[in-house]
């Protein structure tokens, strides 16, 4: 296939050229490319961008007493329709189990089900010698990122000493530790206090997770990474100005600290928790939505380099009764906010909503948008330039993006298997007109036209994030 007169937009340049695709890859980029017999697509009305890379999703994940409503088939179809051509999901170590068992369990859910290519991170719950030894095995086999929690005591939370051990081991292996930074014990105390006073409604989710619990955990993890010899660390779902300030300070001091925020933190604010009745449960995720001032700080961080990635943290739980085949999952917490499963949908909306509020509204350039939603996550996940790039040799994961298209967001039109949309009624600017995964068209104008088993499992390289000094010593 030849894409003719493509207006190529990468993380660092915009230019016009033809793109020749053969055997799933980009094989030539240049003017007036000639290849007899190739299908021709006129790409000139669109921007041609590398497919979105979403390195934070939770498909088919048991959590909070239920299971996320999108499985790998429905969730990756929704991703593809929204212009994302690669997701990295989280396999979870069970309390007694090994990392390899968790990887295999998640592969069994995902292989032959995915519409687009996918990889796995590993969530580590038990930091003991066998687990640390297994990390070496997994890195060699293509899982090079590991998430740990400083929140959810008794479920996922690890100790500070365990974080230190994780960071030392990971940095010796060239792997990256992803940290969920909220102070779990303090939040648990605040939750107990609120419930003890009879404050059970959904908005108390936000009240009991104040910004300071995030800032403190970020600062602590940065200190621990320093103690670990400046081990690289990646903060997931950063939501506040105060947490971002800690990250900026560490980076200014030369520490290899990386961070993402998520679509919802830069589109929505804590005003959503004032919604009547149980509506606020739709916005229960951790950390919670913050103030407009925090939102402004996050946009500035995205524009000027304090934040590297925008991911979706897609973690959908059905809100109401009557969704075909699924229970009202958020309702588990109707009488006690602490039982509302934490997480929100967003894999389908990430590109459109960040283009709308970021590029169309003038917060970030279109190149920076590509960096944040595709190239940087690909680099940090160890899949660049196979993904996240438009260069000879890259997978032909390409999106022909229509920057002028406008529509109103409606849950009833979405592909995500969930009965609400965080951005309901908002006007969206830009849509993926054609989405290609390894040279196959998988979506056209928000209609899925691919086949589910198309997506392949990605074995990943170690991300290029460590300090050269340390890697040499290791
Ligand atoms: O509330 C959230 N973020 N749910 C997903 C799990 C996690 O911590 O990323
Ligand atoms: Zn998390
Ligand atoms: Zn998450």
Strand content: 15-25%
Gross morphology: globular
- What structural category do the secondary elements indicate? alpha/beta
What is the helix tally?
13
Radius of gyration: 21 Å
Count the beta strands. 19
The distinct bound ligands, ions and cofactors come out as: N-(aminocarbonyl)-beta-alanine, zinc ion
Please outline the major beta sheet: 9 strands, mixed
| Amino-to-carboxy terminus distance | 45 Å
Give the helix proportion (percent range).
Answer: 25-40%
The low-confidence parts are: none
Q: How confident overall, as mean pLDDT?
A: 96
Overview of the structural elements:
- By secondary structure, the protein is an alpha/beta fold.
- 31% of the residues lie in helices and 23% in strands.
- It contains 13 helices and 19 strands.
- It has helices spanning 72-81, 99-110, 129-140, 160-173, 184-196, 204-207, 211-227, 241-252, 263-267, 292-304, 350-360, 366-381, 468-473; strands spanning 2-9, 14-22, 25-30, 40-42, 47-50, 52-57, 62-63, 66-67, 84-92, 117-123, 145-149, 176-180, 233-235, 257-262, 309-311, 398-408, 427-437, 440-444, 447-448.
- Strands 1, 2, 3, 4, 5, 16, 17, 18 and 19 form a nine-stranded mixed sheet that branches.
- A hairpin with a 2-residue loop joins β7 and β8 (66-67).
- α4 (160-173) crosses α7 and α7 (211-227) packs parallel to α8 (241-252).
- The longest helix is centred in the middle third of the chain and has 17 residues, at 211-227.
- The mean pLDDT is 96.
